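Figure 2 data, in text form.
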Amino acid sequence: MSPEAFVDIFREALYTVVIMVSAIVVPGLLVGLIVAVFQAATSINEQTLSFLPRLLTTLLAMMVLGHWLIRTLMEFMQEMVAQIPAVIG
């Protein structure tokens, strides 16, 4: 296996992970930002207030994007399995 092939596989795997994680984390970050602005505007200093909206948003994102996440992971895995002969040979 050449170093270039390894780098290409690693790059593709890292890209897939970043895209999948971003799809779940970014909505929670946006909701957390909105709640933080609300807390700053109303002078509410409760740490647990932002936890529930972020948790619900993350769960909702996983429910809505679950099909896409699984399909993306399966396509990546199928590509990896298809590349086995080229990597070995």
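Caption note: The longest helix spans residues 3-42.
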